[in-house]
Design brief:
Radius of gyration of chain B: 21 Å
Largest sheet of chain B: none
Number of helices of chain B: 7
Structural class of chain A: mainly alpha
Oligomer: heterodimer
Order of helices and strands of chain B: HHHHHHH
Number of helices of chain A: 16
Structural class of chain B: mainly alpha
Radius of gyration of chain A: 23 Å
Chain lengths: ~450, ~170
């Protein structure tokens, strides 16, 4: 923790700047290093090869950042702390922390909820540190997200085409389920790739200096997304891309939609796994098997709704859906007997697979309102600001923010990115970029 | 300024190291320990040698002693409960299964608790927990070796949840 010291007496202002400079440099290094590493780190001998390491690294990042900022404040206490509480990007994280703390106190399992509260606090710390990082740095900070995403896309593709299987999997795991990339699960990898692909697409439109590199990344990520075959992620990305196109030109958006639909039809017609999926979905619609249409997630959806019905204001508590799933599942099966024939009947769901319902069930209506407020605040960054300085960074925010909000909204309808550290840290990074660059 | 730097270092550094140890190193270390423990216990259960089972159980108990730290980690208490079953310490096993139920509620925990309670002679509690486990996941019924217990559990599930609760092939 060495601070370069001049032997002669320093004016107070210069020393303060040195502390801030030291704090800023090391904060940036920590943010950049962990943003790059979290999506890539796996621990092969661990029980959970993927998630445990990423969760641990995320918390480690937050601990290091807090230590750095506390130490800097102890060495040089700030004279005045000016916080602009009117900014949604400032007040919303604090409201989320506050509401999570309140729902933790009244949780059905406070020790579980304490873990959720720690994650929310860590997310807030990392978000603000990343905003500072992005403000100090240029457009190429985007590569700290894109490079690991491209690596994951390549690994996922190599697994899907049976070129390379770095991880041992049980014999009863299907071929497609083994295409986990370095994220842990094809569905999780799909959500992760969708957000990165959208950022790369926005960057390729906006950037002049790094256009070639970002276009290559965008192509790799979009191809990786289709090879990944996660329907929700592909739909979320497609909707977000259309929103992005419509922001530039409605005519172009319509043309893009037509081309996109044609491309999708071609993929469905030519690619075997997609053909099988379409056949299965037709069968389920014909037989009225809507639970299968929702990939057997009827039970978690209904149990989450029942939890929200019983605890509308405070929810069951952060991270407590899994704990409350067991008793509520009996009620769900009594109300909807068709759930008893689901092939995942014995599965004890840890997540709803729908973050809208999960947030509602765990933190009640106020918590869900905060979630929607975050999405709205992100989307609003695409609106032009009068004080905004035209720049590549400002254009990037304008191009990405609204589509990213739309993608997040759709993705959370059938996935749980807020519970996956790899995807959550990526979304926090992108949201922080948008926040930092909203004024150029 | 040097004094403040030293004070900051003395206060912040140990707390940071402790936080990193507790929140970063220990969860990963315990995940590795749990993976090894699970392999050892499964191998011991598949082996008919009772002595090998007891040795495996003791090893796992020692290995997992420092790993019951994370409120959401269900594996350490579950594996500890299983290890006590293998070493025929049924009361300790029951305690750990009940502790696991405060962390998470899963059919395998209720099933393991019920089977251990059967071995410990606590039949009434065992039947209750096995009924809950089978009602959640009817497939676990096949894991009950005792035919009489299996039939009794099936009868209880049908009585408590209705005739159509169990799949028709059972």
């Amino acid at each position: 923790m060495a601070v370069k010291r001049n032997r002669t007496r320093q004016p107070t202002g210069e020393f303060t700047l040195k502390i801030r400079d030291f704090r800023g440099r090391w904060s940036d290094r920590i943010v950049a290093a962990f943003a790059f590493l979290i999506p890539l780190v796996v621990v092969m001998p661990a029980k959970d090869t993927f998630r445990t390491a990423k969760d641990a690294l995320f918390r480690g990042e937050a601990i290091l950042l807090v230590a750095l900022y506390v130490a800097a404040a102890m060495v040089r206490p700030p004279r005045d702390v000016a916080i602009n509480w009117r900014q949604p990007a400032v007040i919303l994280p604090f409201l989320i922390v506050a509401w999570t703390a309140i729902t933790t106190i009244f949780s059905s399992n406070p020790s579980r909820s304490l873990d959720g509260l720690v994650t929310v606090c860590a997310s807030t710390v990392v978000f603000f540190a990343t905003v500072g990082f992005a403000k100090r740095r240029g457009f190429k900070t985007l590569f700290f997200i894109l490079v690991p995403a491209v690596i994951n896309a390549i690994v996922g593709a190599l697994q899907e085409f049976d070129v390379w299987q770095p991880f041992q999997t049980p014999a009863n795991i299907t071929h497609h389920q083994r295409s986990s990339a370095l994220i842990g699960n094809p569905n999780d990898a799909g959500g992760y790739l969708a957000a990165a692909a959208l950022a790369a697409l926005a960057g390729s439109i906006v950037s002049r200096e790094y256009r070639r590199a970002v276009v290559i990344a965008a192509v790799a990520l979009i191809a990786g997304l289709f090879v990944n075959q996660t329907l929700t992620a592909i739909i979320a990305f497609a909707i977000a891309a259309l929103v992005m196109a419509a922001m530039r030109s409605k005519t172009k958006a319509i043309a893009a939609a037509v081309v996109g639909l044609a491309a999708i039809a071609l993929v469905f017609a030519l690619f075997g796994p997609w053909q099988r999926r379409v056949r299965n979905m037709r069968g389920w619609v014909r037989t009225g098997n809507y639970n299968a249409l929702f990939t057997n997630r009827g039970a978690p959806f209904i149990t989450a709704a029942l939890m929200a019905r019983d605890h509308p204001f405070l929810g069951v508590g952060p991270s407590c859906f899994a704990f409350e799933y067991f008793p509520y599942k009996f009620e769900a099966e009594k109300r909807v007997p068709s759930l008893r024939s689901s092939y995942t009947r014995g599965t004890n769901y840890g997540e709803v697979h729908n973050d809208h319902l999960q947030v509602l069930a765990e933190t009640g209506v106020p918590g869900y309102a905060l979630f929607l407020a975050v999405i709205a605040a992100l989307a609003s960054m695409s609106l032009s600001h009068q004080t905004a300085v035209p720049s590549e960074r400002r254009d990037f925010t304008r191009m990405l923010a609204f589509p990213l909000a739309a993608e997040l909204f759709v993705l959370t309808l059938a996935q749980f990115p807020l519970e996956l550290t790899a995807v959550l840290s990526e979304l926090i990074f992108l949201a922080a970029l948008c926040t930092a660059w909203v004024d150029g | 300024m040097r004094v403040r730097e030293i004070v900051a270092l003395v206060i912040v550094a140990p707390l940071t190291i402790f936080g990193l140890y507790r929140c970063t190193y220990l969860p990963v270390h315990c995940s590795i320990v749990c993976a090894t423990a699970e392999r050892q216990l499964l191998a011991a259960m598949n082996n008919s040698d009772d002595y090998a089972g007891m040795v495996a159980g003791r090893r796992v108990q020692d290995a997992l002693r420092s790993c019951v730290i994370h409120p959401l980690q269900i594996d350490p208490p579950l594996l500890t409960a299983l290890s006590y079953r293998l070493t025929h310490q049924y009361l300790r096993s029951i305690e750990w299964y009940e502790h696991a139920l405060t962390v998470d509620r899963r059919p395998e925990i209720y099933f393991g608790l019920g089977m251990t309670q059967l071995k410990a002679g606590r039949r009434a509690e065992a039947m209750q927990n096995l009924t809950v486990a089978v009602a959640f996941d009817p497939r676990v019924l096949d894991g009950i070796d005792d035919g009489a217990v299996r039939e009794e559990v099936k009868r209880r599930v049908n009585a408590q949840y209705g005739a159509g609760w169990m799949p028709s092939t059972r």
